[in-house]
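Residues and backbone
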Amino acid sequence: MGRMKILFSAWPGYGHLLPMVPLVRAAQRAGHEVVITTGPDLVPHASSLGVAAAAAGPTAAESYASLPDNAMISRLPESEQSVFAAKYLFGAAGALRARDLTLFWSTWKPDLVVHDPLELGAAAVAVKAGTPHVTHGYGPMLAENDDMIAVIGSALAETFGVDPTESVLAAPYLDICPPVMRTRDGMAWRDVRPLRPSAGESADGSVAGAIAALPHPQTVYFTLGTVMNQTPQVFRAVLDAADQLDVNIVVSTGPGFDPAGIGPLSASAISYAYVPQADVLPHCSAVVSHVGAGTMLGALCYGLPQLCLPQSTDQPLNAASLVATGAALALQPDETTTATVATALHTVVHEPTFREAAARLRNAIEAMPHAERVIADLTA
């Protein structure tokens, strides 16, 4: 098939959009016309990738602010969180995104739609328009996602008039996790296709010089992501643990976080509000993180062992799938202190079995098909 119009649609979160970038780049290199749609808050970042971007649906902050009774999902009983988020966060926002995308379709009708697993507004419009669509995964396929997709679909049926669930599950699913990390036997999607994940794109390379100037031979990268990052006590515990172990630490605090809240940094620490992990990971011995899927898979692309500090959402499940491979240890929020982090981090950095397990996962990732091959198959 010749030149196609391909729409990539993502929930307005970095962890939903950034895993799509390798496929976006492959589509561009193949000569296809590409547009990204997401919430207005993420459009500037999408545009900075050199891709046409359009706003659709609410911002992430607006979606959270509209939750009933000002609920905080992380404070709900764990058994209720997924379904609540599916209906009131992803379902409600999906309907608004579908409304905006219907207008967008009238001026630019795509030949193919690629959406993340929880952004079903674009899928609903694609089903209504008869446009082929594909789900692009961003982390391990979890059993909890099956229920979420059904609830999001029902919410779209109520407010937009289309339930895309069956069509979504029958269409291709691009799985960016190495097969060994699959935590389930049966898959809701019937056409699962592997796609090699990426650690992301580099910036100007200035981080490498800053790391080279740090005093210790080993460096650890630490982040709590861009959503569950409002925990200064966790940042402080990890920073103090790194000082005890005489390792350098590069910290990415994420947006909306006041770095003054974590206190002073030692000479072996650097803090950024945001840093491309592709600029940091090649210089690291290990990663400490919230186990967001993008951070977890990015670290595995470099064969790095990890210390998991899951905070909420899908992070405990991601941690469990990674720990089971032997490439990581995990501490729960009520277990996270300077002493426990220091002990676990020392083990992850110095016990060779963790690096060996991470290397096996890196090799499994390198055996997965490149984005160029996948986009060629999708557009054939």
